[in-house]
Amino acid sequence: MDEVKGWIIQIAYISILAIIFELLIPSSSMKKYVKVVIGLTIMIAIINPVLGFIKSGININNALEKEYNYNNVDISGMTKKAEMERNKLIVDEYKKRLNDQIKERILSMVNASDVEVESSIVDDLNDKSFGLVKEIKITIFNRENETSNNSENISIEVSKANEKTSEIDNIKNDLSKFYNVPLKNITIEEIK
Questions:
Q1: Residue 161 pLDDT
Q2: 3-state secondary structure of 143
Q3: How many helices (H) does the chain have, and how many strands (E)?
Q4: Integer angstrom CA distances of residue 71 from 2, 68, 78
């Protein structure tokens, strides 16, 4: 930047000297020759630094480093880091939406106060099977049951236990078919 400032000052000095020199020349026949010489001098003063840049080559990094304390920033490293962060956000958002979808699917099948879902997926965006669900862990909270009297007999309690087991099996089968997950990779825990 100092070089450009010096260049502009040099052109200004030459211009001022040219005007003064032109005023000192008394003869009108010589004035046109003096104007040509002054014009060539100013043109050389303008072109000379440009030719120097072209001849030596312009190094933008050095100019930026001098002027703005610009240190060599690894732009490719920053790009890779930003891409990795973006990919992580994509995977996290995908998993969140997948878990929400599974939760809604389960709540439509069972009466419960809440359902927590944790899924494991193929999270490499470059993998052709990205998003494939590998495992699902489900926790069902406060599952609403029919109110029971103390006078119910044991056979009804056994049938309700079988009913719960069949509902869990139905949930597993539904999720297995819908998300193409092996039954052994789906676990359901009930918390009352």
A1: 55
A2: strand
A3: 5, 3
A4: 19, 9, 14
